[in-house]
Amino acid sequence: SYVLTQPPSVSVAPGQTARITCGGNNIGSKSVHWYQQKPGQAPVLVVYDDSDRPSGIPERFSGSNSGNTATLTISRVEAGDEADYYCQVWDSSSDRVFGGGTKLTVL
Amino acid sequence: EVQLVQSGAEVKKPGESLKISCKGSGYSFTSYWIGWVRQMPGKGLEWMGIIYPGDSDTRYSPSFQGQVTISADKSISTAYLQWSSLKASDTAMYYCVRGLREAIDYWGQGTLVTVSS
Lengths: 107, 117
Description:
- The complex is a heterodimer.
- The radius of gyration of chain A is 13 Å and the shape is globular.
- The relative contact order of chain A is 0.34.
- Chain A is an all-beta fold.
- In chain A, strands 1, 3, 4, 7, 8 and 9 form a 6-stranded mixed β-sheet that branches. Chain A has a 3-stranded antiparallel β-sheet with strand order 2-6-5, with no helix packed on it.
- Chain A is built from no helices and 9 strands.
- Chain B is mostly beta strands.
- Helix content of chain B is 0%, strand content 53%.
- Chain B has no helices and 11 strands.
- In chain B, strands 2, 4, 5, 6, 9, 10 and 11 form a 7-stranded mixed β-sheet that branches. In chain B, strands 1-3-8-7 form a 4-stranded antiparallel β-sheet, with no helix packed on it.
- The relative contact order of chain B is 0.32.
- Chains A and B meet through strand 3, strand 7 and strand 8 of A and strand 5 and strand 10 of B.
């Protein structure tokens, strides 16, 4: 089965840039999607197809994907960005797969 | 407005059966797949399976194959997740989700299932 690996936690000061990685074997050949989950809430799609943003998601959220690593970048981080972030792909052997999640802490 | 409205929280005993629901509105129910995602307390998201309401084609994650049943009634735009015999380890939040291709674009509010003797 296909495995996605995320760092358990990332910390960043307000106004700085947060980068959350998602590792997988040749993940660059797949489409990667990212979800934000705040405490007590359902997840929300923030980036799809590697780098596209749904309507209503700030331009501060961007994504990239190459080789064995996909990255969610959050620019000018705000306190309200503090949440858990999950990457997700589709794989022929595993169907849809989620990464283990990364807790973003805004210092 | 697209909405996925799930049934309310459940408290069950081990060995009991359960069927929870997810009603879609604000879009063509048969044009998008519906999936189910488990989140155990304090843990991450786990993909359970998917159904295409148009033809009821259903696929399960290997981890959940044989453990749950996913179904849908397109006449009332509702999808279901059911268990025949619950275990304590089934205690979790369950989300129904909608997607067009590979990504999930809408999530239900979640149904908390608690299994305890």
